[in-house]
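Q: My labmate handed me this sequence with no annotations at all. I'd like to see what the chain might look like in three dimensions before we decide whether it's worth expressing. Could you predict it?
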Amino acid sequence: MQRSRRRYPRAEAAFPVRVVGPSGKVWIGEGHDLSPFGAKVRNGHVRLHTLVRLEVDLPGGGPPLAIKALAVRSEPDGVAFTFVDLARAQYHLVRQAVDGLLLHTKLWIMIVEADRAAARVLADHVEREGHAALVLSTAEEALAYLAQDRVDAIMLDLGLPGTSGIALLEALAAREVRIPVVVVSGPTTEAEAARCLELGALDFVTKPFGEDQLKMVVSALSLKSLEERLSG
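A: Here is what I predict for the chain of 232 residues:
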């Protein structure tokens, strides 16, 4: 089955693998860096350019798979294999496992909020959901950080001192920065809401916000972050 080998994120998760060589010799290894197109295996003990069979127990359960694979690189953290002639059903099982792992990957979420109490509530919720929070109080700080590093998602207040939240969204759009943003702010006008959505914001949550609303916000950011990684 031929597929476009566009860039696809790899899921960092350990899973058991039996590597069966051409002679039938078996090595027990630990798989990681899984994608629908390949994986790395620690303790593979296979020469490069050797065609083997990987017997894989996918993370998250499901039936074990027997996958034909070619050893293409030796790296410090294992032998990199590319899958060969993966059947359609196998491809979808591997992709389902990878997408499930990516969806539960720990995100680095920037919170741009001038109100310390509100920022703490947001950060506490982000951390309870298993992610990491970076709290900044101005758009200038956010832009300075993003000029040197990247985050997975942003929770943004519009009423910031100095440069406004809308101006921050405009700056991100001008720089073609593709990071999921949810506006978590006080009451806004229809014009402000429309402008934020036009600039790419996923949604609004109006203060005061509840626990269920924040849970939905983090879930939406996780899904959009996964979508961006898959399309990247």
